[in-house]
Amino acid sequence: MIPATHTSPMLVTVLKRELNMSAQKLKLLSFSGNTKILHLSWMAFFISFVVWFNHAPLLISIQESLGLTSQQVKTILILNVALTIPARIVVGMLVDKYGPKIMFPLLLGISSIICFFFALADTFEQLAAARFMLGFVGAGFVIGIRMISEWYPAKQVGLAEGIYGGWGNFGSAAAAMTLPTIALLFGGDDGWRYAVALTGAIALIYAFIYYNGVSDTPKGSTYFKPKKSGGMEVTSKGDFFFYLFMNIPLYAALALLTWKLSPSGVSLLSAGIAQTIYIGLVALYFYQAYHIYQVNKNIFTTPVPEIHRYKFKQVAILDLAYLATFGSELAVVSMLPLFFHETFEITAVQAGLLASGFAFMNLVSRPIGGLFSDRWGRKRTLTVCITGLAIGYIIMSMITPEWAIVFAVLATMACSFFVQAGEGAVFAVVPLVQRRLTGQVAGMAGAYGNVGAVTFLTVLSLVSAQTFFLVIAATAVVTLVAVQFMDEPKGQMAEVLPDGTVQMIDVH
Description:
The protein is mostly helical. The chain has one domain: Up-down Bundle (Growth Hormone, Chain: A), CATH 1.20.1250. Helix content is 73%, strand content 2%. The chain has helices at residues 8-26, 33-52, 59-66, 70-82, 84-98, 100-119, 124-134, 140-151, 154-186, 191-213, 237-261, 271-296, 312-344, 348-360, 362-376, 378-396, 405-426, 438-460, 465-483, and strands at residues 492-496, 502-506. A two-stranded antiparallel ribbon has the order 1-2. Strand 1 and strand 2 (502-506) form a beta hairpin. The relative contact order is 0.14.
C-alpha cells in the first residue's frame, strides 16, 4: 500500500486509472448484459435499505407524535435489526435453492405490506412489532450477492459486489436526506406516516420491475445449488464443530434482545414470555445443529476429496469482519441523526442531513474496497480497512458540543470510508469461498453484521455515545487480529455440473 502521508495526488491518480480500466470492462453506462443485472440489483437493494431505515431520520417526529420515551426509541432501533439475523440465514439458503429472480421480488413485496403496517401504528407496541418484522427486508442484501456472483468473473466480482453493496447501501443516506423533507411537505403530526408509506409503495412497484427484468444466470450458464438443504455444507470434521460454535453468537444476540425487552429492560415482554423465548432459542439451536449434522454426516465416514474442500475458517473470519464493519454501520446509521440533534442542538431535518454523510460514503467507499481487493489483494485490503475503522471510531468518540459541526461531519465521513470499504472487501471474498454456497456464506456473514448491530445498539442503551464508539473500536482491534489468519483466495474451486462432470472456477 502507498503510505498514507504520501497518498493524495498519487493515490488519486492510481484510483482514477484503476476505476477507468474497470469501468471499461463493466460498462457502467450500459444497460444490457451483466451491467443491466448489476443496475437492477443495486436498485432493488437500495429500495430495500430505504424501507429498512425509513424510521431513522423520522424518529424525532415519531417520538413526539406518539409520546415515546428515550428507552422506547432505543428499543425500536434494536428491534429494527433483530429479525435480520435469522432472516439472512434463511434467505441465504432459499436463494441458493430457488434463485434471486424469485426471492428479491418476494422480499420487496412482503416488506411493503409490513411498511404500511408501521405507517398506521398508533402505539409503541404496534411500532415495535412492525419494526421487528421489517428487519426481514435487511436480508435482501444476501440475494443480490448471489446474483452478482453469477454474472461476474473473479477478477471483477470485488468491484461489482462493491458497486452493488455501496450504491444499494446508499439507501439509508437517501432516506435520511429526503424523508424528513417529504414528511414536512405532507405536514402535520402524520407527515412521517405518509413518508413511510411512500417507501412501501415504491418497494411494491419495483418488485414487479425486478422480476420481469432479470434472470438467475447468463444464458447457457449453470445455477449451482447445494446438494442438501437445512444447513451449510462443510468439508471436514473440525469445520463441522467450528460451524456449530460460530452459530452460537447468532442465538446469543437474540437472547440479548430478549433480555432488553424483558422486565430487566423496557418491560415490553413479561418475565414468563422472556423465559419461554430463552428456552425456545436453546431448543432451536439444537434443532439447527441436528439438521447441520444431517447435511454433513457423510464427512464422519467418508473423507471429502481435496478438490471439493474449502476452509470454514474463511467464513468465520468474514463473519467477524462483517460484524465490525456492517454491524457498526447499522448501529451508527440508526443513532447518528439523534446523536447530532442532541450534541449540537439542531433541528431534525438538519440532523438527518448531517448524519447522512456517514451512509453517503457508500457511493464510493464500497466500490473502492472491492476494487482494491481485486487489484491489490483481499487480505491486505481488509487489514487496511479494519485498521482505519478502529482509528475512525476512536476519533468519533472525541466529538463534543465544542467541536465545529463541519469537523464532526468530516470525522464521521472519514470513519465511514473505512467502514464501508471494509464491507466491500469482505464481499469481494464471499463469492470466492464456494460458489454453490455463496448465498449461505453471504447470509451468515450478513447475520453476523446484525449480531454486531444488536450488540452495539444494546451497549448504546446502557452507556454514553462516546463509550459506544470506543466499544466498536475495541471490537475492530480484535477483528484485525483474526483477519491475519485469513488465506488469500487463489487457484480454483470445483463445482459439479448436473451431468456429473466437474467445472473449475477461477478465484483469483
